[in-house]
Design goal:
2 domains; single chain; six-stranded parallel β-sheet; Rossmann fold; alpha/beta
């Protein structure tokens, strides 16, 4: 397993370049998170939670919102059901129905996402490892015009445990036929970076929110980072 740093490169101390961080290492495959990284859908998931809480009569305050960050519908449904005295499976379906509608209507790719996927896809095989349910992941990737960009996609429905467990990343590496130690993961959340690191992958965090400080090997401000693009361009 690749050792994780004690702090995220770029947040404190002397910043390191990607070349300094990774040296001569080059990935044999790249695995992306989806929500908040490839697709600008994180706010839609929060909106989904707010709508469903309103329909259930559950007060959606800041504390509850923070409690639900990074959790899939399969985990959020039972929490909301407990507070509202309703059936957990019904709440999960309600969450997915609302979120699918919002993603179909308003989901859009993050800046630079399609370009980076095309750029990387010409060099190494790509996969997606997402905490979203399969139906939501498929809609999001289609909405972002990523249908043909990935050799494999893994959702939380496809594995026993969602992030921060490493299952989705291990499944993605297995689907690509590449050992996780030879994979590079892109993540935007603490739970996602923890999952990729636990799988043994090297991790680049792309986080633009003060509330998220993913533990990763390197940090980029966005998928349009000039340093990132230059580093990738130097790959064989």
């Amino acid at each position: 397993m690749t050792p994780m740093p004690t702090r995220l490169v770029g947040y404190a101390g002397t910043p390191s370049t990607l070349t300094d961080t990774f040296g001569s290492w080059r990935p044999q495959a790249v695995v992306f998170d989806c929500d908040g990284l490839l697709m600008d859908t994180e706010s839609l998931w929060v909106q989904t939670q707010r709508i469903v809480c309103g329909e259930l009569g559950v007060y959606f305050d800041t504390n509850l919102q923070h409690q639900l960050v990074g959790l899939p519908a399969s985990r959020i449904g039972p929490l909301m059901a407990e507070r509202s005295g309703t059936d957990p499976d019904a709440v999960i379906t309600q969450l997915l129905d609302v979120n699918e509608r919002l993603v179909r209507e308003s989901g859009k790719p993050m800046p630079g996402a399609r370009e980076l996927v095309t750029f990387l896809g010409a060099k190494v095989p790509l996969a997606v490892a997402s905490n979203s349910a399969r139906r939501i992941l498929d809609v999001a990737l289609s909405r972002g015009d990523f249908d043909n960009g990935f050799a494999a996609t893994v959702s939380s429905d496809d594995v026993p445990r969602p992030k921060p467990a490493p299952d989705v990343y291990l499944a993605a590496a297995n689907a690509l036929g590449v050992g996780p130690q030879n994979c590079l993961a892109f993540e935007d959340s603490e739970a996602g970076a923890a999952a990729a690191g636990a799988a043994g992958m090297k991790v680049i965090a792309v986080s633009q929110t003060a509330s998220q400080r993913p533990l990763a090997h390197a940090l980029c401000d966005s998928l349009e980072s000039e340093e990132l693009l230059a580093w990738v361009a130097a790959w064989p």
